[in-house]
Backbone:
């Protein structure tokens, strides 16, 4: 699989952002999969979601689907989703298109970060394993990656490749550097992590998108400015005997014994 990691900064116009996604897919038509940051189409701000959020089937997402179909490239793109605009229900979502242009699924962020996200979005209530470019993919969004459990559940459910799209900002760059590598190592899966760059809503976004091997090593990484990289990976490759497959060794039958504090010495 050849994957495009697009570390780019969104504009205030979702139509322009959609055009840029399409242009990059078409410029890298030899890629099997293209990945774009969290909330890229609409920006990170949660202000005025009633007017800025996108509905499935709208022109911006349809254009991306058409580019995927033309180029035979799957794509994962972050956007603010109008789940129920009339009742003010919005999602921090990832549209996942397969290489035939079909919408394989929409993953909604299950771990919202901070007051603004929690006030603006409804958290998702399920993880998803989706088939993209012939590979079982487990998508995550930003804060999700800081918890071991979501990635582990995805791997246990058959995900061959982990993908995280992010809008990670100062001062949390090192948190994601460690977490993104740990999730690959924990589950012995390739992990493609794509973060945005630039400034918005009082935040400075730190970039450092990376492709990570199943042993936790960084295959390739960008800096803090805009840029794209392409990487060749083989998610379906069998693990070598030298690599411990933690999924096969983890025990699920263990219980925790908690000893109560002693009252000895109390008067």
Residues:
């Amino acid at each position: 699989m050849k994957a495009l990691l697009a570390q780019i900064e969104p504009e205030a116009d979702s139509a322009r952002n959609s055009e840029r996604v399409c242009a990059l897919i078409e410029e890298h038509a030899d890629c099997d999969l293209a990945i774009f940051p969290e909330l890229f189409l609409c920006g990170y701000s949660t202000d005025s979601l009633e007017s800025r959020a996108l509905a499935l089937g709208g022109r911006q997402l349809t254009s991306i689907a058409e580019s995927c179909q033309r180029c035979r490239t799957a794509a994962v793109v972050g956007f603010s989703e109008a789940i129920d605009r009339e009742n003010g229900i919005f999602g921090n979502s990832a549209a996942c298109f397969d290489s035939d242009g079909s919408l394989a699924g929409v993953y909604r962020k299950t771990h919202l970060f901070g007051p603004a996200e929690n006030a603006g979005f409804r958290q998702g209530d399920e993880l998803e394993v989706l088939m993209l470019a012939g590979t079982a993919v487990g998508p995550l969004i930003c804060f999700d990656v800081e918890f071991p459990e979501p990635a582990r559940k995805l791997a246990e459910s058959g995900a061959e490749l982990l993908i995280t799209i992010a809008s990670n900002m100062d001062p949390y760059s090192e948190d994601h550097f460690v977490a993104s590598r740990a999730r690959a190592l924990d589950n012995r899966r390739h992990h493609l992590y794509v973060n945005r760059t630039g400034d918005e809503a009082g935040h400075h976004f730190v970039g450092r998108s990376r492709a990570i091997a199943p042993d936790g090593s960084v295959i390739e990484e960008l800096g803090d400015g805009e840029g794209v990289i392409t990487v060749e990976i083989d998610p379906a490759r069998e693990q070598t005997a030298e690599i411990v497959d933690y999924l096969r060794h983890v025990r699920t039958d263990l219980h925790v014994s908690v000893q109560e504090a002693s009252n000895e010495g109390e008067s």
The mean pLDDT is 95. The chain has seven helices and 14 strands.
